[in-house]
Specification:
There is one protein chain. By secondary structure, the protein is an all-alpha fold. It has one domain (13-189, 201-389): Up-down Bundle (Growth Hormone, Chain: A). The chain is built from 20 helices and no strands. The protein is globular.
Length: 398
């Protein structure tokens, strides 16, 4: 009888953890949903020139390979991943408010750098916390992560509706509001069992960087996901210049994220190896950017947006599955930090260069993005046998 009474208690514990994590993913990606499609629109509205927009847009990627690895490594060494999540979420809300009070490019840039130093570690810290939960409670990552995508849609739609009602100069305050909600939601996250100080965490992260399989995962994912930089930076500006309204722009972003949600929801049923999922994601990006480069009509553009489910969503599912099999839970924050830093380095370089390429060639920039995605697909394909032969680590969910 005692054993039977413990079963629902364990199930309830898993449910509670997953629900709270899903809520935090939701509010955190709600910030991204209000920021990513319309932050550059706000920059343009306050008079920032395209050259400055390219530089400012590169800041999150720069902080991902500079301050982010330091934060994730420090959080792991101090066994304080959850505390670091709460601290960075709170600081992000405050710093976005300070950015919103600025009008000139240099102050915006300086304060946005501080903001991103707090904000960019939040996603890898959350993924590290989530994958530790996957290892601890044996639930699927995709169905929990999809709530972040749902919130992204709601945030984008909210801005899309409001941009036709309020001045574009006020969009920053929607971002501030969402960041504040995210910080408050983080307070509900429950602590996970900490790793003893005698664990391999004390040995440092060098073994990960000597693992050819981990390096293949890291670099291929960076190439494929960084191929989205042109889309993230210039898509809304492009569509606005074609005469599309704010709600239509938000709708196009929403189509992509709906496809992403479907992929996350169905991910527990995927039977293909995780490396194959990443290959498919990379090839989908090649096709998507090749079509986008030709200024497609709105109907084809809408169909192309659905490819985000594969180019981003399937790549993310594949990479997270590979990570959970290759990185022990006690090294997960550091592994996520390396992964995010590599993507950040490539994304920042791509963002800075893309501003100059876009100014001269316009949508021809997407051909460069297609080449990056192709390189990522080729890299993970070449490493597929090494990855398939890799035994499951203790982080594996099965």
């Amino acid at each position: 009888m005692a054993g039977e009474s413990q079963i629902p208690t364990q199930a309830s514990l898993v449910r509670r953890f997953a629900v709270r994590l899903a809520l935090f993913y939701g509010t955190t990606y709600g910030v991204l949903g209000t920021h990513l499609p319309f932050f550059t629109v706000w920059l343009k509205a306050i008079g920032i020139e395209p050259g400055w927009i390219g530089i400012i847009s590169a800041v999150p990627a720069v902080t991902r390979f500079t301050t982010l690895p330091l934060v994730t490594s420090l959080a792991e060494r101090r066994h304080a991943v959850r505390s670091a999540m709460l601290l960075t979420a709170s600081a992000t809300a405050l710093c976005f408010a300070l950015v919103g009070a600025q009008q000139q490019p240099l102050p915006v840039l300086v304060l946005y750098i501080v903001t991103c130093c707090c904000w960019t570690p939040l996603a890898p810290l959350t993924d590290a916390y989530a994958l530790r939960g996957v290892a601890r409670y044996k639930f699927d990552y995709g169905p929990v992560r999809l709530w972040g995508s749902v919130a992204f849609i709601l945030g984008a739609l909210a801005c899309g509706l409001l941009i036709d009602v309020i001045a574009a100069r006020q969009l920053i305050w929607i971002i501030v509001a969402m960041a504040t909600i995210s910080a408050l939601t983080g307070l509900s996250l429950q602590p996970l069992e900490e790793v003893p100080r005698t664990s391999r965490v004390a040995e440092g992260g060098k073994p990960l960087l000597r693992d050819a399989g981990f390096l293949a995962i890291m670099f291929s994912a960076a190439l494929i996901q960084s191929s989205h930089v042109a889309y993230y930076t210039f898509a809304s500006i492009n569509w606005q210049s074609y005469g599309l309204g704010g709600l239509t722009i938000a709708g196009l972003w929403t189509l992509g994220v709906i496809a992403e949600i479907v992929v996350f929801a169905l991910s527990p049923r995927f039977s293909l190896h995780a490396s194959t999922l990443v290959v498919i994601g990379g090839l989908s990006a090649v096709m998507r950017w090749s079509i986008t480069a030709h200024d497609p009509p709105i109907a084809l553009l809408a169909i192309t947006q659905l490819g985000h489910g594969l180019s981003f969503g399937l790549t993310q599912v594949g990479v997270m599955n590979l990570m959970v099999h290759h990185v022990p839970p006690r090294l997960m924050a550091r592994g996520q930090g390396y992964y995010a830093a590599t993507g950040g380095l490539l994304s920042s370089a791509t963002s800075i260069i893309s501003g100059a390429i876009y100014a001269r060639y316009g949508e021809g920039l997407y051909y460069v993005m297609a080449s990056m995605a192709a390189a990522g697909a080729l890299l993970i394909w070449s490493a597929r046998h090494r990855l398939k032969d890799q035994p499951h680590s203790e982080a594996s969910g099965g």
